[in-house]
TrEMBL record:
PANTHER family: D-THREO-ALDOSE 1-DEHYDROGENASE, NADP-DEPENDENT OXIDOREDUCTASE DOMAIN-CONTAINING PROTEIN
A Pfam family the protein falls into: Aldo_ket_red
Name of protein: Diketogulonate reductase-like aldo/keto reductase
Domain of life, source organism: Bacteria
Length: 309
């Protein structure tokens, strides 16, 4: 989602530059450093880098070079910094098509873990939509297919289970954008019917901490987190506020990394998927996957500081 406050402004207001960024000849590039953290997908033990990319709004663009060049750079920066997971949906306009075309244009198509969704009613309509998503993303198989916002989820999960057995997809999942669905997501997680669950969670909206995160961890379901910045409202709250001095203990050099590391410090979280179309911002986001993570005491300290602002 689009931020309410310019991310560029926020980077200037905090530490001046983001972790892992350097200006070289007027362009921004990644400073080499250690490998990004990974977390295993419980159902397979396959490692996944902990910071990925959401594509809602940002990748719903036309065909002009002015619109697409920043997105090419975002994908290139992801690969350079060790990110792999890209999350999309038929709901996101042209995003799937843009992902497919740009990953091929940049010759990076084999570098990513592709996640998308089924978002319709009925078995036949679901099958046709998923086939269209594969065509748009130019993939012979999708890594993760999720039922978007639990639309006709029981019908689609039957198809996804069959498709996984047939090798058309690698993992199954369910998603929702609202915390009001957390109880239902938890029931599905406890039934062990999916490999992944995706939901909303941030330092400002912590409903998932009540039981959903623990349920996913206890039942071996991987967790994707959407809306880590609450549509940019978290940046509005910290406008003109400096980072606490102790943030450097965790390698945090921007408010974006502060918000992402709070999420990633929870052991149930597999990957967080902030959306952006800005190459500098994607490097800043990916920087949250490096260095020390807060322990539980550190997470409580982060919440206390945030709520006191």
């Amino acid at each position: 989602m689009q931020p309410l406050l310019s991310r560029r402004t926020m980077l200037k207001l905090t530490s001046g530059t983001a972790l892992g960024l350097a200006c070289q000849g007027g362009t921004w590039a990644a400073i080499p450093h250690a490998t990004m953290r990974t977390r295993p997908i419980p159902s397979s033990n396959e490692p996944v880098p902990v910071v990925g990319l959401g594509t809602w709004i940002q990748f719903d663009v036309g065909t002009s070079d002015a619109e697409r060049q920043p997105l090419r750079e975002v994908l290139q920066r992801m690969v350079e910094q060790g990110g792999t997971l890209i999350d999309s949906s038929p709901m996101y306009g042209r995003a799937e098509q843009v992902i497919g075309e740009l990953t091929q244009e940049t010759k990076l198509s084999e570098k990513f873990f592709y996640a998308t969704k089924v978002w319709t009613q009925g078995q036949r309509a679901g099958i046709e939509q998923m086939q269209e998503s594969m065509r748009k993303m130019k993939r012979p198989r999708i890594d993760l297919m999720q039922v978007h916002n639990l639309i006709d989820w029981q019908t689609h999960l039957k198809t996804l289970t069959q498709w996984k057995a047939e090798g058309k997809i690698r993992y199954t999942g369910v998603t929702h954008y609202s915390t009001s669905a957390n109880a239902q997501l938890e029931q599905i997680v406890k039934a062990k019917g999916v490999d992944f669950v995706q939901f909303k969670y941030s330092i400002g909206v912590r409903d998932a901490e009540k039981s959903l995160l623990k349920a996913a961890q206890d039942h071996g379901v991987a967790v994707l987190i959407n809306e880590p910045f609450e549509s940019g409202s978290l940046f509005q709250k910290v406008k003109n506020k400096p980072l606490p001095a102790w943030a450097s203990d965790y390698g945090i050099q921007s408010w974006g990394q502060f918000f992402l590391k709070y999420i990633l410090a929870h052991p149930a979280v597999t990957c967080v998927i902030p959306g952006t179309s800005n190459p500098k911002h994607v490097v800043d986001n990916l920087g949250a996957g490096y260095g020390a993570m807060p322990d539980e005491a550190g997470r409580k300290k982060m919440v206390a500081h945030f709520e006191a602002l």
